[in-house]
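Why do we care about 3D structure at all? Because function follows from shape, and shape follows, mostly, from sequence. That is the central idea of this module. The next example makes it concrete: a single protein chain, its amino acid sequence, and then its structure expressed as tokens.
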Amino acid sequence: MGQLNFYLEALDRDVKNENKNPSIGILLCKGKDDEVVEYALNRNLSPTLVSQYERLLPNKKLLQTKLHELFELWENKKEKEV
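And the structure:
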């Protein structure tokens, strides 16, 4: 999360237009037994902006499902190559 926040801060300082809202990051991870989806919001966001982003972000369960499907496809591809 710390590294993602670092990149978000760099993006906002060096790339983002001043008239745009702060950037957000979506962290997708796969562990041994489960998938984790976390939204990384810049620490400087006001509670109002956070609530606005939460309404606009993709559904967490949908992201978990899609991540699981992606890893299944990747593992099936690896098995076919062997």
